[in-house]
Specification:
By secondary structure, the protein is of the alpha+beta class. It has helices at about 1-20, 45-50, 55-65; strands spanning about 40-45, 70-75, 80-85. About 45% of the residues lie in helices and about 15% in strands. α1 packs across α2 (about 45-50), α1 (about 1-20) crosses α3 and α2 (about 45-50) packs across α3 (about 55-65). It is globular, with a radius of gyration of 12 Å.
């Protein structure tokens, strides 16, 4: 359980940083969340490379984080973070 929580946190932080950096049409630190569309999604494979975690581990984490801290979409077998879930502040 503790290992899952640690992996979830690593994946969340990576997804958040990669997602914020990928947004070139708006600054997620200056624009309110309701104006974050369209956003550039971050693929599970990119998160795996960034974190050094196995792709399957990243996918498990994304499934747990989906709807709680991240918005995750799926295209075929690929998962992608489409947005962080804002808690009233910047990503």
């Amino acid at each position: 359980m503790a290992e899952e929580l640690a992996a979830d946190e690593v994946v969340y932080e990576s997804a958040l940083q990669l997602w914020a950096a990928a947004q070139t049409d708006f600054d997620p630190y200056q624009v309110p969340p309701e104006d974050w569309h369209p956003a550039v999604a971050i693929r599970d494979a990119d998160i795996a490379v960034d974190t050094g975690l196995d792709l399957d581990v990243v996918r498990e984490c994304l499934h747990r984080l989906d709807g709680r801290r991240l918005v995750v979409g799926q295209d075929g077998g690929t998962l992608a973070v489409t947005a962080p879930i804002s808690e009233g502040g910047p990503p």
